[in-house]
Amino acid sequence: MKGKLWYAIPAALLFLLVVFYSTAKYFEFDSDGNVLTFINRGLFISNFVNYREQRAEFPKEKLKRYRIQNYLLFSYLYVYVKSKSNQIKRVRFNITLLSNSKKRALKKSLEKVLKHNNEIS
Q1: Rounded alpha-carbon distances, angstroms, from residue 114 to 2, 22, 24, 26, 111
Q2: What does the pLDDT profile of the chain (121 residues) look like in tens digits?
Q3: Residue 14 within any structural domain of the chain
Q4: Domain holding 70: CATH number?
Q5: Is the whole-model pTM more than 0.85?
């Protein structure tokens, strides 16, 4: 019994490290000006090898809706944007490491943009 437990602990720790590394991302949001900017980067070694960057920039008028989905360990921001061909495209960002106060500020900013878009329409 002890022999099996000895191998299980490092395997579980390695599994948790791989899951954390693959999902933990740095999130940046900017709503100044007429453009919304969303940036997701890998948390580790992204300064040297920036292979995990996900970036979306679009005019505020193209934002149709958004949704924040909280799962057991992860949180995602889904942004729905109108494309050039008048289709709605969904973009997903990992916001797991964002604090609750920053999530509230993000919601407030996106709600303000949506309210402005509805007034224009």
Answers
A1: 58, 32, 28, 25, 5
A2: 556 677 788 888 888 777 776 666 788 999 999 999 999 887 665 556 666 788 999 999 999 999 999 988 789 999 999 998 999 999 999 898 889 999 999 999 999 999 999 998 7
A3: no
A4: 2.30.29
A5: no
